[in-house]
Amino acid sequence: MLDVNKIREDFSVLNRRGSYIPIYFDSACMSLKPDQVVKVMDDYYKEGFACVGRSAHRSGVQATKKVKEVRGIVAKFINAKNENEIIFTRNTTESINLFANSVGLSKGDIVLITDKEHNSNLIPWLFLRDKIGIIVKIIPCNGDGTFSIDNFSEMISGAKIVSVVHTSNLDGVTNPIKEISQIAHKNGALIFVDGAQGMAHKKIDVRDLDIDFLAFSGHKMLGPTGTGVLYGKASLLEKLTPFMVGGNTVSNSTYTNYEFLGVPDKFEAGLQDYAGILGLGEAIKYLNNLDWEEIEEHELKLNTYLTEELKKISKIKIIGPENGAERSSVVNFYIEGVDMNKIAIMLDEMANVEVRSGRHCVHSWFEDKKIYNSLRVSFSIYNTMEEAEIFITNLNKIMKIL
Amino acid sequence: MPCVIALIIFGIIGIFSASHRDLAKEAFSCVFKRITLRPCDTGFKEKIKGKVLSKIINRSTFLARMVNRHYEVLSWVFFVLMIGSTFWVFSGVYKFYVYGSCNGLNQSGFCAFDPSGENNKVTTLGDNSTCGITPATESSLTLKGVDLSSFVRKTNIGKDEVVVIGCYACDYSRKVYPDILKLIENKKANYTFASYPAKGDTTFLAEAGYCVNKIYGEKYWEFNKYLLEGEKDFILDKSNLNKILEIFNFDIKKVNECSNSTEVKTIVENQAKELKKTNIYGTPTIFINGKAFVGPKPYRVYRSAMNKYIFF
Question: What does the H/E/C string look like for chain A?
Fold first, then answer.
C-alpha cells in the first residue's frame, strides 16, 4: 500500500507549519513538486551551472553529462530504445507543435483526433488545416466518454496521422492505445500520443504500446514547469525536418549555408532549461522509486470514494464513465445552471480545497455538449482519504444553499 | 450590478492597496463589457459571489441560501444604498466646506468633520445666556427692515457687504473677529460692526464705541479691535474704561460725557431693538450680502460666501 504520509513529508508545501496548507486537488493541471526535485534545480544554480554541449570547461562538461544522464533516465522511463529518441521541449504543447510542423504534412493529408482532445492536441491541427489545407477528422467517443474502436475503425482509412490523448484530462479515461496503434499502423498511419495527463499515474511503455511519437510535460508528473519531452522512434525522427532552428542545431554554418546536427540536437534550438531538465530527471527517479500498482490502487480508492459520494447528490452529473475505476485520477462534474467557478472559490475559501473549475482547455467538448463549465477534482500520490472527505463535507454544505 | 459595486469599492480600496487593484481591473473589464452590450464572461461576478457566500455559509446555511438566491436583488439594494450614502457624504463635505456644518447652514446636528460642533456654537440671548450653548431652534435671520444707519460702517472699494453682530463678552464673537478682519482686508468689503450685549452688561462699551466713532471717526476701528481682542476681564470691568480710552489718547472726559448723554443711551438702546428685528438668537451672527452665518465659522466659509464660484 502506498505510504502517503511518508510521501507527503517530501512536499514542503504540505508541511508548512502555521500557514496555509492547501488540500490540493488540481494535479491534472499541475502536480506538486517534491523537495528532491527542487533541490536538484537549486543545486544546479548554486553549485556550478554552465551551457550544455558547448563549453569545454569542467562545469560545462559536468552539466552536459548530467543532462545526458536525464535523457537516458527519460528514455528508460518510457522504455525507448535509446536516449537519442528523447527531445527536450518546454511542454507537451511545444512537443505537439514540433511534431505537427515537422512531420511534413501537405494539403489533403488526413489527421484523426478524438472529440475530447486538450487544446494542445486540437489547435495545432486546426491551425495547419487553415494554413496548408490538411483535413482534421474528429473521432466521436462513446456516450460515456470511452474510446470508440468502431468509430475509429470506420474513419482510419486514408489517415496519415492518428493523434490521440493517452489519458484524458477531461474525464480521466485512458484510451486503448495499444489497440489504436495496431489499427493505425495496419492502415499506414502514424500514431502520436498526448501523454501529458497519464505519465504520473500509469506506466507507459512506448515499445509495448508501439507508439510512434509521444509527448508529455514535466509539470504534471512532479517535475518543474517549462519542461517537456517529445519521444519519437529513431527512424521516424530522422525523417522530421526541424521546426525551430538556430543555436546548437547545426554543426557548422557559413553566410550562405548550414549543416544540421543529428537527432535530437537539431530539434533543440537555443539554450535549454537545464535546471528544469535536471528536475525532470529527479521527478522520474522519484516516481521510479514508487510501485505503479500501488499508485493505481491508491488513486482507485480515492476515485471510488469520491464517485460514490458524488452519486448521492442528485443534482451532480459526472463527466465520463460512472465507474470511478475507469477515470484514473480525475473526477469531473457539473451542475445544470450553476457556474462551477463559484463552487471552486467557495471550496477554497471554506476549507483550502483547491480544485479546477472551467473548461479545462477542452472548450470544444463543452461547446459541443452545451455545458457551461465543470469542476474537476484531480489527485495524485500525495492526496489522502481525509482530504477527500473534507472535500465531500464542504461540497455537501454548499449544495444545501444552491 | 455586483460588478458596478465592486468597481467602485475596489477602485477606491485599490488606490491604497495593490492587492485590490487587480480586482478593480477585473470589475472594470466586466462593467465595460456590459456597457458595450457584451456578456460579462470574466467570471468576476461568480468569484465575488463565491467569496461572499463562503464567509456566510459557516455562520448560517439559511442566510447563505437566501443571499445566493437573491444575490442580484441584494446587489441592487446595496447599490442604491451606496449611491445614497455617497451622495449624502459628498453633500456633507460640500456643506461642511461652504457652511462649516455637514448638515447645512447654521445647522447644529452632529457633523463628523466638526464633532464638537465648534463651528456652530453661539452665545444665546437672554438674561442667563452662556457662551458655548448650541442653538436648539432655527430662525429666519434677515436684515430686511433693520435700520443699521446708526452703526459704524466702514466703506471699502468692494461690493460685498458684511454685517457682524457680536458681543464683546462672548468668546465666540472674539474668536471669529480676526477672521472677519482678514476677510474685510482681503475682499475689500464694506463692513458694519454691531455690538449686541448677549452676555452680561456690555452696553457701556457700545456707548463708548459710538462716541469714539462720533468724535474720532476711523480711530473707532482700532478701539473696537482692542475691545474684541484685548484681555477680556480687564475690558469688561467698567472701571477700566477710562484706562482703555487713555491707551488710545482719547479725551476721557469728552467720551464719557458723550456716553452718558441721554441721546447716546437712547441710540444704543434703539440699536439693540433694531438688531432684534433680525431674529438673532445668538452671537456672533454674521451677515454676508444678507446671508446669515451663526457661530464662529472657519474663514473659508466666509470667503466662499463672497467668492463667485465658491472656491474662487
Answer: CCCHHHHHCCCHHHCCCCCCCCEECECCCCCCCCHHHHHHHHHHHHCCCCCCCCCCCHHHHHHHHHHHHHHHHHHHHCCCCCHHHEEEECCHHHHHHHHHHHCCCCCCCEEEEECCCCHHHCHHHHHHHHHHCCEEEEECCCCCCCCCHHHHHHHCCCEEEEEEECECCCCCCECCHHHHHHHHHHCCCEEEEECCCCCCCCCCCHHHHCCCEEEEECCCCCCCCCCEEEEECHHHHCCCCCCCCCCCCEEEECCCCEEECCCCHHHCCCCCCHHHHHHHHHHHHHHHCCCHHHHHHHHHHHHHHHHHHHHCCCCEEEECCCCHHHCCCEEEEEECCCCHHHHHHHHHHHHCEECEEECCCCHHHHHHHCCCCEEEEECCCCCCHHHHHHHHHHHHHHHCCC
